[in-house]
Specification:
Blueprint (H helix, E strand, L loop, with lengths): L5 E2 L2 E2 L1 H23 L5 H29 L6 H27 L9 H41 L6
Antiparallel strand pairs: 1-2
Helix pairs in contact: 1-2, 1-4, 2-3, 3-4
Length: 158
């Protein structure tokens, strides 16, 4: 199923996914630097990266939900899309909890425990983005193969 939400012929949701992924990655790198002894400004930068990543993540989730509404019910694509959406929402919830925990510190820096959870959430986000890309690439390759087979054997029913 093609994406229904498009700008200039390109699907919006895959583009939107890259923003929170990059922002969450930078937050982890800033926190790592802060934990290794860099100034607290890196912790504050990481905090604001998480805020921006959550905003971008919600926008990507909305775009994904719009695309998922047009996938027929009862299909494997619908089931996989729902599972991927739930996994990505879990990542957003983890980062939201991290954000709330950081609010208690005046400089918004993360401790070792928060950093460990942040790293775990980033791994989940990377896996979700990779899995989504794999699903899209496999479905397109499968559809292309079926289309080529149908053109080469017009009388055959698959």
């Amino acid at each position: 199923m093609d994406s229904r939400l498009r700008i200039a012929g390109q699907a919006v949701q895959p583009v939107l996914v890259m923003f929170p992924l990059g922002l969450f990655s930078m937050a982890v790198l800033f926190d790592l630097g802060n934990l290794l002894g860099a100034p607290d400004i890196l912790g504050a930068l990481a905090y604001w990266n998480v805020v921006a990543g959550l905003i971008g993540g919600v926008l990507a989730a909305v775009a994904g939900a719009i695309d998922l509404m047009f996938v027929p019910n009862g299909t494997p694509a619908k089931r996989i899309g729902v599972l991927q959406g739930l996994a990505n929402m879990g990542v957003l919830i983890l980062f939201a909890v991290i954000l709330m925990l950081r609010m208690s510190h005046p400089d918004r820096v993360a401790g070792g425990g928060i950093f460990a959870v942040e790293l775990l959430a980033l791994v989940g986000a990377v896996f979700g983005a990779w899995y989504g890309g794999e699903l899209v690439n496999r479905r397109q390759a499968y559809a292309q193969t079926r289309s080529n087979q149908a053109r080469s054997n017009p009388g055959r029913i698959f």
